Amino acid sequence: MSAVEAKLAELGHTLPEVVPPLAAYQPAVRSGVYVYTAGQLPMVDGKLPVTGKVGGEVTPEEAKDLARLCALNALAAVKSVAGDLDRIVRVVKVTGFVASAPDFTGQPAVLNGASELLGAALGDAGVHARSAVGVAVLPLDAPVEVEIQVELEA
Length: 154
Description:
Layout: H1 3-10, E1 28-31, E2 34-37, H2 60-82, E3 88-99, H3 107-122, E4 129-135, E5 144-152
Parallel strand pairs: 3-4
Antiparallel strand pairs: 1-2, 2-5, 3-5
Helix pairs in contact: 1-3, 2-3
């Protein structure tokens, strides 16, 4: 078990299996020292625990928890191509999409679920640039989707 996975366990999280792609793409690809993940939905055992719009059927607090699940799925995707999460030098960028009710403007607070998990699991290496985008709808009516880019040791 990597030190990152041990830290996740200490925080009460288990790294899940990689979520299989929903279409014609790979969950993660490596290019040089960088790993780029596809957008990760908050899947648990192959299912979305909640569906709908944040600020509508889904509360911001629920969505923040779902963003945390997305980050865990993203780390699993990174591990699938990097081999070991301890090879992460830095999380470079996080992009999050929030399926939002028309008047919902709290996308950054929702994405804090992912950002806080990455920071807690990776320390300074988990501090990153980020975009939080509100969208009309996401695949499978998911409330949140997160993608990450990480730099690995050479």
